[in-house]
Amino acid sequence: MALNVVCLVGGVGGAKLVHGLAQILEPEQLTVVVNTGDDFWHYGLRICPDLDTVMYTLAGLVDPVNGWGLAGDTRNTLQALSRYGEDTWFGLGDQDIATHLLRTEGLSQGKRLTEVTQDLTARLGIPQRLLPMTDTPVATMVDTVEHGELGFQVYFVKMRWQPTVKNLRLSNIEAAAVSPEVEDALARADVILFGPSNPWLSIMPVLSVPGMREALTSRDIPRVAITPIIQGEAVKGPASKLMAELGYKQSAKSVVQYYQHIVNGFVYDIRDTDLQVEGMRGVALNTLMQSDADRASLARQVLDWISSWN
Ligand code: FO1
Fold first, then answer.
1. Which of 24, 136, 164, 181 is 20 to 30 Å from 144 at the Cα level?
2. What is the CATH number of domain 5-41+49-62+128-143+171-307?
3. Would the CB of 39 count as within 6 Å of ligand 1?
């Protein structure tokens, strides 16, 4: 039986697992639902960093060092902007700008973000389905001790996630809805995976779309989260620092507890011990994906474990 897998993700960590899944599943078996809380307008362009990170990763075009942006890209446009005296804090590559131009053009023609994304992925030859979590523009706002409320990219990129986070808010989320494409993918899913993305910054926005929790939990199927935390540390990014600031203990166990009412299985790392949580299935795997082979291996082991459930 062909298994339909839906994977919810944010940026770099999630994209790695998606790449692993893409290596072992037929393209029509995989749908990726991506966080759009990080999206923003910059120089008149609509930028969707997490969608682009997953798209470039699946296309084999991603910058292998950063994990986002395009491999071999240049920064001539940014240099020209600095000549005008602009503070070029957001690292837009010249080729990356082509993506933002086409996306912005598509949106200005009245297309939905889902349609624009389908068009971009098709043109890059990506056969898997890549879906934004919603078509409505929403924005993760980060309330900080030092600077008050900041837009996500200002907090994350400009301020290098150094400010102390007090709270997170999703602007315009009340106007958002689950798209027909996400609804359909979830209705046909045999397994839902929550990628090793930041639960608060990347997955929480997805779960906050009105109707999303119901769509995720309406049927009794495996819903499995993969830890982004190994031995209390984030593999990449501010997850661990943020946990402490939001009052959680810095451990994978806090991630399980955060997901407790939405997932029924949890993949923690082999380096962590004693993480079995009552009422939830758990397994320890090597979740540190350092090579393409690691990605495929983790994806295979997660799906093999899930198929052993019944
Ligand atoms: N992340 C950075 O840390 N610095 C950057 O200058 C930067 C530029 C950038 C440009 C396009 C893009 O699609 C992503 C970019 N990112 C950058 C990554 C991105 O902002 C974050 O990784 C995500 O929003 C968090 O998942």
1. 136
2. 3.40.50.10680
3. no
